[in-house]
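Homework help board

Subject: predicted structure for assignment chain

Our instructor gave us this sequence and asked us to write out the predicted structure in token form, then describe one feature. I got the tokens but I'm not sure how to describe them. Can anyone check?
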Amino acid sequence: MKIYWRLLGFARPLGRYAIPYFFFTLFYALFNTFNFVMIIPLLRTLFGEAGAAEIITTKPEFHLSIDYLTDLLNYWLYCLYGADYQTLNVLVFLAGFVTLSAFLSNLFRYLGQRTIENLRINTLQNMRNLVYDNVLGLNLSFFSSARKGDVMSRITSDIQTVRFCIVNTLQVAFREPFLIIGYIVAMISISWELSLFSIIYLPLVALLIGRIVKKLRHPALKAQQNFGELTAVLDESLSGVKVIKAYGAEGFFKGKFRSVNGLYSKISRSMMYRQQLASPMSEFLGISAAAGLLIFGGMLVLGGESGLDGSGFIAYLAIFTQITRPMRSFTDAFANINQGIAAGSRVLELLDAESTIATPPEGAVRLDEFKNKIEFRGVKFSYDEEREVLGGINFTVEKGQTVALVGPSGGGKSTIADLIPRFYDATAGEVLIDGVNIKQYDVESLRSAMGIVTQETVLFNDTIENNIRLGNSEAPIEAVVAASKVANAHEFIMATPEGYNTNIGDRGTKLSGGQRQRLSIARAILKNPEILILDEATSALDTESEVLVQEALEKLLKGRTSVVIAHRLSTIRNADKILVVDHGQIVEQGTHEQLIAYGGLYSKLVELQQLD
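My token output:
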């Protein structure tokens, strides 16, 4: 129930929708019930039964019964046609009355559904916004362990399923109960004897269907979890389709997808079997009860002692067959609410996930200007408790310096770079900027002072202009062009079909690796950061592209404080300081000439690259 009430909280302000829905469904139930009650005077008029066309010259006093309704109609007929009206006049009047009642019933039904749809759409929109905002605010360690496809499934499919909780709650609370109450009142007013039989029978139906509904929640949760796995496999397959084809792994991935899809279908099938059983079971039980009513009611009509006539009995049967419909909807709504709760529990897990990297709630410092230095003091880091990635790192980057990180793969270079913008937090020691621990800074202001160019260029399915503007959305087009020229990108941009308005496709697939990297550099130049982090920005490029990118990087580095991770050591010969990182430790540091003269690991790495 806790999950249910939390999900319902997303519909706030609920009164904005619940109050009008209450009145719309109330009037819908009244006019809908009235349509069936009108069967009695229609049949009496057609078959000339007593009381159908009595002349009533004075307005009858109100009392809750079918006789009152008949007298009121006869009074209206007298007011409309006088004392000498004919049977045809009565039929025309009743037909018009029923038509008007049906119109009003369906009008209020439409208005109620419109209100419910507004509630559903607004609630799901708010929920998607909140979950997406929270997911984007989580630290990178969350995405290292979570499957992207599963996260996407929760934000899309699961939230869509949650609508059952919101929409069906109001239907369970208002619409179906109003219809059931209206039908029961009409049935009692026609015959309390038949109604007694019905009131004993109806809870039996609810009990049987309730047992089916109760078993739905667990398979619903498993179905949502399995759908998340299905989406994850699909995302991985589409993202890596080039590698899959290159290695002839289509058969493996087809088998994997079919296996997951088969399990999802099996769970869904089992769940739907149970869910769909509720409606036909209630309908069968309803018809069975109607058969019993037919016998019992026939005895009452033929006996003539109960006051129940043929037209009243037919109207009663018509209403009784209708009461099973809102009861079916009532039970179906509970089944769907269980589905919504199962999906909602997965959505709330995302919403409740908290980032361990956040701006301090009190006393946060804004990094409006970088003044002195970046300092690592005894920094240790591990992604898990078992393996330590960094073991006591100490170094300083003075303002305006270019410091290069080199060393064998897996030594911890990228981890050091990731600690500066607080993608991760050190597990021991501290990272300081201008003498302040970066944990004390406002995270947004900290990262806004930095520009990052990585080996794996991340571009978005948008225009070239919008990709460059990512870090500075307010920049004029002239500034975008100027940044592109500095990054050696303007020439190839103008050669594209629509220049800066050209869409570059998913992840920039319409461009070459060198072109993507130059756009990434243009993006960093436009942001104009005080601190620059380059993570092997040229290692994946061909020679011609590397020359162009390296030239652009040199322009970018001028006058900036830079931390450069270098795979090709020739690109960092002029760095102010080179740190050689191996197995989480800084094993050597100095200038290029000093490290070559020292003859250690750096010297060996240079020799190996020269041999290559």
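Reply (TA_rk): Your tokens look well-formed. For the description, you could write something like this. The two ends are 66 Å apart (CA to CA). That's the kind of observation they're looking for.
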